[in-house]
Sequence to fold (163 residues):
Amino acid sequence: MIRKQTKMTVEAAAGRLKALCAASEQCSGDLRRKMARWGLTERQASMVIEELERERFVDDFRFAKAYAHDKLLFSGWGRYKISQGLWAKGVGRDEIDEAIEALDPDDYRRKAYDIIRTRARDMEPDRESKMKLLRFGAGRGFETSLLVKIINSPALWEVQSPD
Fold:
């Protein structure tokens, strides 16, 4: 059975989006795409976004900061991958830059080290293994300079005693 999509009113869209934003942090780009699927025009979507921003349901900087924090801690993403993810969601360059700057440097280095340490667990400290780790860390979005420091640190290659 195919459901016929009916065009949603501006008021109904605003109500649904307010409920969505109250439940979880959202960005204006995702909300615009959602409203386009609902059949709202770009002008109508802009009006709804302005209302949501005015009532503080939507704030792209707040979203970007939460996104960056969560992707670092829970997904193990580096700055490059976080920036790319935010850009894909339609977040502005200024918000992205501020969110990346807001990441705690100690948490960032610790997460990069933990990810590389876990991956290096059964590897030998030879050139091939180090290159694999470098490619892996770069794929996760971490900076090459940070990865090289981690990979070349003797502590990474010390044998861990089983707990």
The radius of gyration is 21 Å.
